[in-house]
Amino acid sequence: MRMMKEEIEEQTREEELLSFPQTQQQSKLVVVGYALTSKKTKSFLQPKLEGLARNKGILFVAIDQNRPLSDQGPFDIVLHKLTGKEWRQILEEYRQTHPEVTVLDPPYAIQHLHNRQSMLQCVADMNLSNSYGKVDVPRQLVIERDASSIPDVVLKAGLTLPLVAKPLVADGSAKSHELSLAYDQYSLKKLEPPLVLQEFVNHGGVLFKVYIVGEAIKVVRRFSLPDVTKQDLSRSAGVFRFPRVSCAAASADDADLDPCVAELPPRPLLERLAKELRRQLGLRLFNLDIIREHGTRDQFYVIDINYFPGYGKMPEYEHIFTDFLLSLTQSRYKKKSC
């Protein structure tokens, strides 16, 4: 039965190869093996992307997780977003035995973004400031356990209310994207560790999602949590829970916004930030959630970093991503010929 399944898969792949124009069959076809969740496959591998990829000589092939990875392929690139210790080990071993294959991205580098304590540390260590603006992270505190002690720990750390509470683990699940806003000291006891507490920074209710694909950068606006005034703090109490805040339905690109709020972060600042993060994180596929402190023009804060985000929501992602995949293989061939 298993043998029959493998034969069917091989036949299907041969048919896909034959469907490519003859000129592309003669030239080097770029084969991209992908290991994604069904949800990620649906949102990322949209028909428009696959059609454009086919025209550019790129073939996407699903990786069978029930078969040894080394028995599949051959691949030029492996694209993945799966969690679990077993998968990380499989991929690390594959990287060692198949150095000719580009793995996007190394499992050990991705792990760095699964913890919100370490996620923003590289940004904090940068102290990125130049004539285009300053980039920082909100003051934050990690609570591993014992919710009853949170008010005292917060008071001792000198954090200012309100505080944004986020799950410590950022594994891409819906729960890891949920957040809460705590308005008073007493309500902090209602939170559920392990979590990260961040000082809330007023930002005009708009955040900037900065998508990074290799060296390409694309920025979109998203609606975010509204500003909190002193009156709000005096009148409000409790913990307010929010689902994922920055979603496709919350696009603010076409909204009638105050220009001071809507103005995108300066391009040179984003380019420098992206370059530094690519180098420090060792990643090529990620995005940043950035806010501008309300009332300022050049004070920005990175509040989240995500690996292999929802590129399907990024304008022109099909062209950007296929160009990126081709550039990877072209640079590798250049290195071989040198």
Order of helices and strands: HHEHHEEHEHHHEEEHEEEEEHEHHEEH
Class computed from helices, strands and strand pairing: alpha/beta
Biggest sheet layout: 6 strands, mixed
| Neighbour order of strands in the largest sheet | 5-6-15-14-11-12
> How many strands appear in the DSSP assignment?
15
Q: What sort of overall outline do the alpha carbons produce when their principal axes are compared?
A: globular
- Helicity, as a percent range: 25-40%
Termini separation: 46 Å
Total helices: the number is: 13
The fraction of residues in strands falls at 15-25%
Poorly predicted runs of 5 or more residues: 1-5, 22-26
On the 0-100 scale, what is the average pLDDT?
A: 87
Rg computed from alpha carbons, rounded to a whole number of angstroms: 22 Å
What does this structure look like?
By secondary structure, this protein is α/β, with parallel strands linked by helices. The protein is globular. The protein contains 13 helices and 15 strands. The strands form 3 sheets. Strands 5-6-15-14-11-12 form a 6-stranded mixed β-sheet. Strands 7-10-8-9-13 form a 5-stranded antiparallel β-sheet, with helices on one face. A 4-stranded parallel β-sheet has the order 2-1-3-4. Helix 4 (47-55) runs parallel beside helix 13. It comes from Citrus sinensis.
